[in-house]
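Appendix B, Record 12. Input sequence as logged:
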Amino acid sequence: MSMFADIPVGVGEVYSGERIRWQDTHVEFGGLRVPYKFELVKVRGISEVEDGKVTVIGPDIKDLEPQKSYPLGIFIEVAGSQLEEELEGVIERRIHEYTNYIEGMMHLNQRYDIWIRLSKRSFEKGLNSFHMVGKIYSRLFKMELPIIERIQITFITDPEKVKEMYDYALKEYEKRDARARGLKDEEVDAFYGCTLCQSFAPTHVCVITPQRYSNCGAISWFDARASARIDPKGPVFRIEKGECLDPVKGEYSGVNEVVKMKSGGEIGRVWLYSAFGHPHTSCGCFEAVAFYIPEVDGFGIVHRGFAENTPIGLPFSKLADSTAGGRQVDGFHGISIEYMRSPKFLQADGGWERVVWVPSAILERVKDFIPKHLIDKVATEKDAKNVEELKNFLAARGHPIVKRWEEKAKVEAVARPAEEKVAPPAAPEVTAEVVAPVGISAAVGGFRIILKNAKIKAERVKIIRAKEK
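Logged structural output:
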């Protein structure tokens, strides 16, 4: 683009989806190694914003030691006669898209979970200051969202300042989320879709409803509606619900049609409120993963910031790999934290009565939305480190999942005698000699297999008399 002639690296959609490995990284901002990081957009009055101003609080990129991780806050203030507060989340989510337009920069996640890497190659080309990144943001935002009349951007790398603004950002996110609560899926005639993450997950289509936030946790139904209105050709679009095919699982004919089209025919059906059958796809920016634990017939939930292993011995990163990439994987479900506060949360699978393990930090954040009788029955990392400890905890606390175990045991006990009555007569003992195949040393010899009460189906059977010893 000629508008970026003064930028030492390329800028454009062609660079979206670029993965930067640690060995190729000059510096990293945010991610799992850093506790405080955020990106936040606020709508201001015209007089409060100095258009094009870029400020860096703390060391700039060129002043940082290479191959290390640093805290980062990206604070963007915008003004315009048509701008409203409900557009803040929409504009904020574009930071992900526009950062990935920059050659040699990788942006993942959102809000308080951002993870940015700058490649060695782009740094060597001259991309060594946030002032350049700020110029790119300013131009892209004003070009693609003309309702933004003024924009000023602040990058914060000073650890104390990042931490201070981090707390402010969390309160702003909560205010937005609270505004979106209360409206029901049944009360609207349309949902919204988002394909912002298709550069990383080509078959992923996020379906946003009043009671099911985007997987990244950054876009509510109201945000999506506003985005589709101001940018009709953008990555967020309206989905006519169509016929409700299953109100419990959350299947809609209109959703199926749009998802099939937007996924290139790869995904034909979506159940919005279930982790089984045809679960909602996941990109890679989801806040948490719900994962099925067959040993207890329940779900665990782990968020991106949890650094330990879950009771099944896997950390968040491994579980994320199991569900990311726009796939539908039974029992693995990328979700937002806000969705955990929804009455539709895993509705078809039993909801909170099926959840058995959640990190304590997340349990604390959503406890006001969990049925009161369950709060002390859901295990955390403090209660169970493995499946055996989890079983013992659930049994001791009387979690509703224990009744499922008992009912399953009863069904199996009833079915067992019936199976025994119709069992076929015992098959005679069969002795078969398996001769070592050609090419194996004769010293190996043959070996004998005894099959008892076995049914064998074969197109051809060759019986050879065993040699006398």
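The longest strand covers residues 72-79.
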